[in-house]
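input
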Amino acid sequence: MFIEEHITQKIYFLRARKVMLDRDLAILYNVKAIRLREQVKRNINRFPSHFMFQLTEDEVTQMVSQNAIPSLQHLGGALPYAFTEHGILMLASTLKSETAMQISVKIIEIFIKMRELLINQKEFLLKLEQLDRKVLSHETSIQTILKILKQMMKVPESPPRRRIGFRRSTDDD
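output
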């Protein structure tokens, strides 16, 4: 369970994709980050832009400011590569180590769990919105009913009645 939590903490949301940085993957795969980058450069045709991209300086600065990474030195001086779910799988086949394959399988399983969680969350939000609409509809109906009941309960004020019977000229109406 520890490794799943550790991996989950290393997944970032960049350019509208869930990605992991090359340095974090190197640690998980038990290889040096520079060796991982070398393998990527040797097999660059296996990594199209939707599998992997290099972060810009602005993105790195933003990650540091949001405390996603501790500092620029944490990255080892080079702009890191970010790997998507498919890029991580391709990276494992490029590295050809048993550890890389096992960790990649674990990472892919985590990505799948995250996707399922997101789908379940969307379904839950949809149900809440439907319930909210029903409640608002019922609230409007209840307010209308209460308004009508209040009107029905009001006793209309009648003008003062004239007294019946014999009146003296000194009596007031």
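quick obs: The radius of gyration is 35 Å.
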